[in-house]
Amino acid sequence: MKVSLNIMSVVLCIALFSCSHPTKKMSLQSGDLLFQGASSGKLSEAIDKVTQTHAETHFSHVGLVEQAEDGSLWVLHADIEGGCCRVSLNDFLEPDGDSLQTVCYRLKEPWLSAIEPALDKARSMLGLPYNFSYKLSDSSHYCSEFIYKAFQDAAVFKLKPMTFKDPQTGEFFPTWVDYYGRLGIPVPEGEPGCNPNGMAASDKLECLGEYD
Fold first, then answer.
1. How confident is the model over 70-103, as pLDDT tens digits?
2. N or C: which end of the chain has fewer CB within 10 A?
3. Are the CB atoms for 195 and 47 separated by under 8 Å?
4. In what order do the strands lie in the sheet with 61-67?
5. To which H or E segment does residue 107 belong?
6. Angle, vertex CA 137, rays to CA 59 and CA 175, nearest 5
7. Are the C-beta atoms of 117 and 31 separated by less than 8 Å?
8. Which CATH architecture has domain 5-211?
9. In terms of pLDDT, which residue wins out, 5 or 127?
């Protein structure tokens, strides 16, 4: 789930301002969550508009860091092209050769024990397709659903009713009406779900800052 490149300089500044101790460089470790907010497309913009929180972040994608025994860094995530997959850190940061601004969050101390079971669960979901309906499923996952399921046993993240309506008008965004019309299913208004902005606002995470 991603947002438009032409607004990223502004929105990433907002995201970084909300971090208590942002740093330009950091050492990533297993269990870190990498949030991204850079991509073009009306759907990504519509996602961002209906998933805002008090933290005022503008994230549209999230992945889970895994550090291999040899020290190499990988990211487990679900995306439109690859479904639920494991990619190198560099490929996650620069898909198709485009550099994406990325902000790193880390679980706070009481929740660190959830990391290894979450990685095991994430590995078990690799190979599943992307969930284009955004309705919770056991056979396909969207990006934040993948992370939610990984940490589900530890109850790190919570589901909330989804909305696809413009908060100013109370009407469905036309983008969503068109999207679900093409899928041939009703807009899943009010059904349980999750999103990167909501996860980033969790009090169980601390923001480490932008990862260069």
1. 999 999 999 999 999 999 999 999 887 666 789 9
2. C
3. yes
4. 83-88, 73-79, 61-67, 33-36, 102-107, 205-211
5. strand 102-107
6. 50
7. no
8. Alpha-Beta Complex (3.90)
9. 127
